[in-house]
């Protein structure tokens, strides 16, 4: 269990401060995370990694010469927000574009994607590689659905060494994708970890049992069995990984690979070495040439009891980059060239509170948007308790609290932005970021993403017409469906959002006014929400949360229906006031 | 708990094999432990460290360029034997002498001392520095009684950097002792660790409590309290260490120090960083200039839940050596120069089975010594169960088993040595090493030390007369008392050994024959053993084992009395046979 903390809510901020103090000559803190404290070659690609906190050395421990240029650091086991990632990437940028790399989890995919959009819109070339090494999380046919676990390290290391070598962004992407497809991991768990201040572990494995393929946040695994001997575990892990050689590696015999044996927290060094003894022998028997292996704690989950094995199949280029020197807080090899410390004054640290210029029209629109956001806050605050109650039937009961926190933060931020002259797009973006940051969880990510999609469509130049707003809602819907992977019928807010968006677009195409179109869409939304809610007592939770499905089932649908109705009232009032 | 192992008895050997396989380009295995796999400058001092296993990265993880030249690796939490240390030191020796450095625990003191004697007797200059950083284990007045904990790292690092810089052995000792006296640590524990295959942890701290100053093997601490917040823990640790500035550091304000915040196994990185945040602020407030701190797992105890803070107060020379580059499996900083791999054929690896030349007389004596050792085995095997029963009253009940394993191994080794023409001294030394290796525990260390002291006194040149044997017994007694710190009356085998040795010397000085003198001494020994044993039911265990006092109380005294009587029978028989 996690024993040492002050205020659990401040845990990540305080850990970050301590981490930076301990490694001041390698990293420095910027809004959203950390970057190298050393200068990089100008006009080279910057590699920015990130993910939830609690996985040290991932992610901040892997920032430094020869490794990543920056890491965006989310809350414990929660994706960093798009704003955090964007901000770290801006500070890390060396002029030749940014590669974002992160483990394949829904929240990370969503937020890194948004950050990328924002960077590209500002003219910073940006590409993404999501790590998919965990063979137990999806079949080979669905390799793109696999999670990222300890293979983060090999992918980040190769990307960074390629950037350090002066590769262009396209070349960095090519070699990073090659590393990603040639990295395969398989893990087991014996017990979960406890978040600071929590009463119990995130999950448990029954005493004396081992969960095979269980995810590092407790995502379901493949099977459960008795705890094997160290040798049997080695055989299980090596056997599974040798079954699945990546494309380009025809047979294990004679192939070159690096090997990572990773402890997740409380499986300690001596135990790992006992397991590695057998791993090493088995791979040698299979004819694999082992190159610079690593045995230790590379990607953890606080004090989770678990271990994973990673094989990273090399080609000549990958092997060269794997050998390349690195000097990060938690990963050092070879001799790096001495580098100057950066000058903080030269950093491009975006001020998240800065208001970009906007047209007069757009600033007037911003006032209307603010009214809609304030109406949203009112309806959520009024119904927070009821939403919690609904959520408790099928979900974990925190939907009301999360929505209330998010909506309050969004309204407060929006009012401040309006007072400081923000256009409608900027106001929506800042409100969305505030919502995501303060609400946390999946609903925070969804609402953050929705408002950001609207913001990007509306912009700060013109007053949005009905068609633009309908397009913005479509974009929000597409984003959420793309990243969250929920479909209509999964009993999530998608069940409401899809008919709402369809109707809105349809009505606008028929030249209906915005208030009228919106009103018709609200009716459809409420029918859909009702249908969804009615199912709850009969079929229970729609999709297990552990699958990181989208939204809090049905309570999310209901809160969306409430919000669009509240917004309708505002639109009507605004129309009648001229 | 420790979950991953095969045969618990093979745990350390298997972990060592895995460790060496994972770090083959930095370390190589030799009998007794590991040495660097890279060549060192000729005619430089070799730093050889060591201690029990289960503390990774201590000790083997700290072998490599810029750090130690070799590590002797004992069983889990048990000192390496003198033979192991000697063997590693011979292989690591670069021609300018050897510094042995280790934590201050009775078994380590005993065995490193013996190894040093053997190296010196072979003309290899050898000095020792025992680490004494743990302020909670003894008062400042008794600083030499303090234990070594995470301060191992600073002391080893300085010694190694000085050796690397070409310092002579005397200079290395000077700077290492300075580092030792300027390193102060203070630790806390929340729960103990479980040895592989054991049913329960070595010790427990009550749920929700924190033991202050508890030793890493469960040795008693200062007090117990509620688990504090991270900030309160930082205040406790920093406060205690600032109370006690070492000589040469007049005040904290303006002084330069490195800081180690060490996790012992399951207190994880993020927690340590939260604590370090406050440590850093407190030290800055006190005016301490922090130099290259380390936050992580530096000296562990398997999966023990605990943490310690170390302050290492620098002067100019120490700071230079602290900054010096290092490239060990678990500790890397800066850029080390590329070094060639060693040629295994050039290593001086002593063959523990080699029989040095001996005089004909000494070889005949060896036959008599063999008979005495075989008689010892007989009496122990016959009484093993009874000794276990006696030990169970006051100790942990394993005295009989340990003595039986040791005596059997000693007799077997002695017979083999005699058959291969060993002199009496060599035969005793090999028997003593075998006893220590196989018996383990404190009684193994004691009997190994006793036979080694006799061996060194007797040698391989002449047949020992009564006076030589009496001197050998005195030497054995002095060794055991010096290293074990027990006195007559502590209810250990010292209660028997002291009167036995005194009487033997007295009788020999009066010109009594060896059998007669020995016989009189045996009578005194039995009186003393009886007196010791009688006390047991009334006063219970004499000294807590956790203090690493010498011997298993009273069962050790009784087995010694049995052995000297059995040897007396052999002496009489030999005398009557001529």
Question: How would the blueprint of this fold be written?
Answer:
The structure is a homodimer of 578-residue chains.
Chain A: H1 11-22, E1 27-30, E2 33-36, E3 46-53, E4 70-76, H2 82-92, E5 98-103, H3 106-121, E6 126-131, H4 152-164, H5 169-181, E7 183-191, E8 209-212, E9 223-226, H6 230-242, E10 256-263, H7 269-285, E11 289-290, E12 294-296, E13 305-313, H8 316-323, E14 326-328, E15 331-333, H9 360-394, H10 399-419, H11 424-439, H12 441-458, H13 466-484, H14 494-509, H15 514-539, H16 555-576
Parallel strand pairs in A: 3-4, 3-5, 5-6, 10-11, 10-12
Antiparallel strand pairs in A: 1-2, 2-4, 7-8, 7-13, 8-9, 10-13, 14-15
Helix pairs in contact in A: 2-3, 3-12, 3-13, 4-5, 6-7, 9-10, 9-11, 9-16, 10-11, 10-12, 11-12, 12-13, 13-14, 14-15, 14-16, 15-16
What does this structure look like?
2 copies of one chain form a homodimer. Chain A is globular. In chain A, the strands form 3 sheets. In chain A, strands 7, 8, 9, 10, 11, 12 and 13 form a 7-stranded mixed sheet that branches. The first copy, chain A, has helices at residues 11-22, 82-92, 106-121, 152-164, 169-181, 230-242, 269-285, 316-323, 360-394, 399-419, 424-439, 441-458, 466-484, 494-509, 514-539, 555-576; strands at residues 27-30, 33-36, 46-53, 70-76, 98-103, 126-131, 183-191, 209-212, 223-226, 256-263, 289-290, 294-296, 305-313, 326-328, 331-333. Chain A folds into 2 domains: 8-334, Dihydroxyacetone kinase, domain 1 (Rossmann fold), CATH 3.40.50.10440; 360-576, DhaL domain (Serine Threonine Protein Phosphatase 5, Tetratricopeptide repeat, Alpha Horseshoe). The first copy, chain A, is an alpha/beta fold and 578 residues long. Mean pLDDT of chain A is 90; it is low at 535-553. The first copy, chain A, has 16 helices and 15 strands. At the A-B interface, α1, α6, α7 and β12 of A face α1, α6, α7 and β12 of B. Chains A, B: One of its GO terms (molecular function) is carbohydrate kinase activity. Chains A, B: Residues 367-569 form the DhaL domain. Chains A, B: Residues 7-331 form the DhaK domain. Chains A, B: Keywords: ATP-binding, Carbohydrate metabolism, Kinase, Nucleotide-binding, Transferase.
